[in-house]
Amino acid sequence: MNSKVYMIASNCVIVNGAKKSILLDLQREKYYELTEVLTSILSKKFFKSWDNLNNQEEEFLKFLIEEEVLVLIPESTIEMFPTLDTSYHSSASVSNFIIELSLLNIEYSNRILKDLNTLGCVHLEVRVCEDISFIQLLDYLALIKDTTIEIVDIFLPFIQGKIENIEKLKVHASEVRWIYIYSAPIKDLATLNKKRISNTLYIKQNIDASLCGNISPFYFSINIATFNESKSYNSCLNCKISVDRNGKIKNCPSMNFDYGSIEADNLSKIILNKKYIKYQSIKKDDIKVCKDCEYRYICTDCRAFIEDPQDLKSKPLKCKYNPYTGVWEK
Ligand code: SF4
Ligand code: SF4
To answer: Is 126 among the domain residues?
Structure first.
């Protein structure tokens, strides 16, 4: 008779931290916290039964079976379940471009977009500065037609965030995914977001240092692409390039150094810069503290705001999690 064994589904992996372990379901984009005993049982690739579990842990294993995270298979089919391939490949040299759209750099739009097209960029984030009119933004978006760009996220100043403008943006460019209305009055945020139209969000932040680099479970990205990328590259800066409002070319607009100016340089040249490449390859397993954190392959790795600016590999400044105690500080 063919006996059966339990195994963790191939799309699920366990990540151990200093204090806690989690189980990631990379297909259904969920994670579960594990006790020490459960980690020890589930870390075996295949097992027939379990002992010494309390009621809660027994119930949790049953729950994982219902969720199809834990599956029962005939022992004779074990060879048919190889471990997950965690290698990462990207066909584009740059997949992600952030521009702070200002009067200065809008003049170079054609050249920048031509460059991005050559590099195979698919994702564009436009942070619209307050000196740009709505008409100028529409003209800019018209230029992305017939390029490799497939997804556009827009940060629009509150002053331009009227419903009719938002609707125009969506009609004008089908590539538009999310529209964030920044600098929205804090007292009106709840009301505005209650009435918002889909794929629009009113936020209190400006497009400055407060906008980006925040670390919390809200920003975790639980999927195979992020997991594999985080194992080999920087989970924020890999294949990313940006131009800030002053035309400076950087890994991201918040970095405090640049590689040149859009007035004189091409993006294709900058991506060969050794320092630019180095930032892309700083992975979570290289970062102090993060390398001991169970969330390291689903968490963003901010390099613009770090605990010790003198240490390239120090922990993201805006993270309040301590993997040695397993507690998020307030
Ligand atoms: S490095 Fe930090 S500030 Fe820059 S894009 Fe990434 S998360 Fe945002
Ligand atoms: S310690 Fe590092 S990996 Fe863990 S949550 Fe904070 S930033 Fe993310």
So the answer is: yes
pLDDT at residue 219, rounded to an integer: 94
Q: Are residues 64 and 128 in the same domain?
A: no
Which ligand has the minimum distance to the alpha carbon of residue 313? 2
Write down the pLDDT at residue 1: 56
Distance 237 CA to ligand 2 centre (A): 16
Whether 90 is in a domain gets the answer no
267 and 192 in one domain? Answer: yes
Q: For residue 220, how far is its CA from the centre of ligand 1 (angstroms)?
A: 14
> CA–CA separation, 300 vs 315, rounded Å?
11
Query: Exposed, middle or buried by CB within 10 Å (0-12, 13-18, 19+), for 256?
Result: exposed
pLDDT at 260: 96
The answer to whether the beta carbons of residues 129 and 245 sit under 8 Å apart is yes
* pLDDT tens string 72-119: 999 999 888 888 888 998 888 899 999 999 999 999 999 999 999 999
- 226 and 300 belong to one structural domain: yes
Nearest CA to ligand 2 atom 1: 290
Q: Which ligand 2 atom lies nearest to the CA of residue 316?
A: 7
The position carrying tokens 């074990």 is: 78
Tell me the pLDDT tens digit for each residue of 5-27.
Answer: 999 999 999 999 999 999 999 99
Q: How many structural domains compose the chain?
A: 2
Please state whether the predicted TM-score (pTM) of the whole model is above 0.85.
Answer: yes
How far apart are alpha carbons 168 and 207 in whole angstroms?
A: 22
Give pLDDT, residue 209. 82
Q: Which domain range does residue 37 map to? A: 4-80
Does a structural domain hold residue 327? no
212 Cβ below 6 A of ligand 1 = yes
Q: Yes or no: say if 247 and 263 are a contact pair by the CB < 8 Å rule.
A: yes
Q: How far is the CA of 237 from the centre of ligand 1 (A)?
A: 7
Q: Do 59 and 33 sit in the same domain of this protein?
A: yes
- Residues 143 and 230 placed together within one structural domain of the fold: yes
Both 228 and 274 in a single domain?
yes
Of 19, 175, 210, 206, nearest in space to 97 by CA: 175
- With a cut of 70, list the residues of the chain below it in pLDDT: 1
